[in-house]
Design a protein that fits this description.
Blueprint: E1 2-4, H1 6-12, E2 27-31, H2 39-50, E3 55-60, H3 65-71, E4 76-79, H4 84-92, E5 96-99, H5 107-119, E6 124-126, H6 129-134, H7 139-143, E7 148-150, H8 154-160, H9 171-182, E8 185-188, E9 194-196, E10 202-205, H10 217-230, H11 235-261, H12 264-279
Length: 280
Amino acid sequence: MTPITRQLARALLPPRDRLGHKGTFGRVYVLGGCTGYTGAPVYAGESAVRTGSGLVFVGVPGEIYPIAAARCEAAMVHPLPRDYAALLDRIQACDAALIGPGLGRSREIEKLVPALLRDLTLPVVLDADGINAVSAHMHVLDERRGVTVVTPHEGEFARLERNFHPGQSGREQAASAFARRYGCVTVLKGPGTIVAAPDGRTFRNATGGSGLAKGGSGDILAGMVLSLIGQGAEPAEAAACAVWLHGRAGDLAEEALTAYAMTPLDLLGRLPAAFKELEE
């Protein structure tokens, strides 16, 4: 088990070409949102921008498009095309995709997510309702032609791994076994977040506190993992670096505002200071 320290996070952060342009730093796609969950794809998209992506596209259902578009300051929002082939082409034109933040649960989503995992060849980060949608179709993880990163909290992980129960000991072993079995980088969130790679590497994080235990924090982390993969980081290393930065930004927000009063927007606002610490 490798602890994720500031020094390790600094070493894992993709280098920034000072002569680069927006195409240099990755095109990434966020698929999420539904009525009642309009904030999740916004947080994910904006965190991908904050983490360094050159171009961030956010696809949301048409009925929430005006809300999401008004809330995104830098990510580019569009209503999802109704044609599956058009959606597939749009996502496949990017360097990495995130599926799930606020996507909702329905029969349509339970069909869409496995189909996308089957047909997409780019790296995919699965979060929230993306995880829920694949939990009854675990074979698609075995059959994927691209890299998959899953970012569950313990309740979501229990839906993927039926022998796991939230609160049980042995989180590291459970995450590592799952990563090996399904060939997925596994980010098991919670106090001491675990990052497990299919090759057996495991990382444990120590940054972050209870101020992160609020809806929206996980969407920000998923967007950060997406961004670093889109910038060329190896997926397990992208996840480990993102987890440290996310937790450190949470620590800074908690120091200034308390764990009670900080919000996911405060977390997003502290990301620059967390990145600054890696450049010192």
